[in-house]
Amino acid sequence: MKHTLYRAAVVSAAALVALAAPALAGGGLNIAALDSAVKIIDGDNAAGDLALVAGDGQIWQGADGDRITGQPVSRDSHYRIGSVSKVFESIVILQLAAEGHLDLHARVRRYLPEALPAAFDTVTVQELLNHTSGLPAEDEGAPPLTPDQLIAGRFDYRTFAQDVHDTLYPDPAVRTAPGPHFVAGTKQEYSSFAYRVAGLLIERVTGNSFAQEVGDRITGPLGLRETSVPERDPRIPTPYLHGYYTASNGSVVDVSEQAGLPSTIISTPADVDRFLVAVLDGDLLPPAQQQLLFTIPVGPDGAPLCDISTGLRVQCFSDGGLMSTRMPDGTVLWGKTGHDIGYASGVFATRDLSRLGVYAVSRIADDNGDAPALAQRIGAAAFVKPQG
Question: In whole angstroms, what is the distance from residue 212 CA to residue 309 CA?
């Protein structure tokens, strides 16, 4: 059954920025600055990139590379969005809560009694979304994978259930079962593994795959025809941004085809733009759940809980799973970054949609989760006013 949008019209940033322009009025986008920012320079650790910025009634799109093949990168290329898929997950969870299928304040073990050991008994559904669960990292305690192992294992696929079981119930002869990092609800620590549990929760509550729920609730209703949840299919639609990774011998390997997880999503800048517009504009959630997208959790002392473990400027994650980051000029952006092997991406916007930016970078080696220099330049250029 198709999900009904909570607002009648869903439009792209191209239309919305014209309505929201007063917040950042004063000259429109600086096209020259954006054209310069998207160009790859030495030290960027990138083979190619593409970006979209909307604001003041304008839309700019740019791309550069591919430095490995020598071929140009299409501005409409598909790419792997990495953890931006977590926003899709959180929207599905919040919709299920709005429909009465689950309680955000209930303990996860109420729905998945066998999935989490007793040590995680107090973790709630809400704490999965806002990164305050205290759950361990995926495969915590296992030796880190080498670049060669990452490349060789890129076609491996694990279901949510396998991922959760392998992490929390490892072979005791290999490694010790991990315990909580902290008491749930007392600290914020970014957790991809919490969203593996959230994915399993979606499948258990609905009886459907994550791919089907995303299709029925998000991509179908919004008309995101270039967005797919490929599951076990490693292929990527054309045209696409090639992803690369550097092997131990220094050779650069094309890793565009990879299997990943049930929550792996492929999209384009235009579709990601349309998705975040719908998220921020209230098209996908009723008011009570919509407010959670902008509600930062607080600790026992009443102070906001923000994750600063990534080395970036202070980041807060809302009860709805959105990342909030403050620009140097005080502007607050909402969105999410993402990483897959060979790819780094992100989408951010002001809450009033007076600025929205999407980027994808073909990264040649690991960047430790940091936003690529290219993305930082594009983000800065989005707020530079034109001269004259």
Answer: 34
